[in-house]
Structures are given as C-alpha cells and as structure tokens.
Input
Amino acid sequence: MKKIMLLSLLLCGCVTPYQRSGYSGGFSEMKLSADLFEVNFRGNGYTGQSTVKRYFLRRCAEVALENGFDYFVFVDQEAYSGNYGVSSTERGTISKDFAGNYQYNGTIDHSYVTKHGRTGTIKTFLKGKQPETAYDAQEILNNFTN
Output
C-alpha cells in the first residue's frame, strides 16, 4: 500500500504525459463529420502553455492521419487556462478535548496552480486537395520531439 501511495505522489508531481485524457490531463477528440474533428488537450498544474500547444498540434496531426487524411487546417482554435486552489497542511496538531471533540491547531498553506488547455476544430484534406495554408500531418509528426 505504501508503494502505491508513493508512486501516486511521484506521478502527481509531473508534467502531463502525452496520453488519452485522464486524471492528470491528456488529449481527446470527437469526429464531427467525415472530414471535421474537434481536438482537445488539457494539461495539469505542471504542464506549461508551450507543451500544451505542442501536444495539441501533435494530436491534430495524428487524428488526420488516423482517419486517412494528409493535411489539416484549423477552423477554430482556443487556448484557455484556469487557476485552481490547492490547500495543504504545513504543520499542526489534532487534539481531543475532555468532551471528545477534535480540534486542529496549526497553519494551512493555500496556493493556486494554473492549468492550461487548448481546443480546436480541424478540417482535414487529402494530398492534392489541400489549401496552401494547410499543415502537413506527416511532416509535423516527423519533426515532433518530446
């Protein structure tokens, strides 16, 4: 049990990995039509805005290729962030008085973390039918570095 708790604590202190959306963030997508997709990437409190943007672009390229397309353009795209409160006990004691009531004596640290995310809709194209401003999905993946 202690090993599981330690592993959980270690994983919680890390940047969101490139993964399907889960507790610590990640990507998701939804097919809107044959060539239109909504793509999302949500980071945790340790994931910077630039990492979120890179992972979002990577997922857009993968979605295009996975669905048989070579190129994509953004129909719309939005970056968002939010501040979330985090409370953790710094130090203190819990005591029980003669009547059986519990009392906490100590200090609590309140802080905030910022979580970044990005969402957008992409329109996909086959080779030879793409507009000039389209992203080449395979080229994005070939140049992607973690």
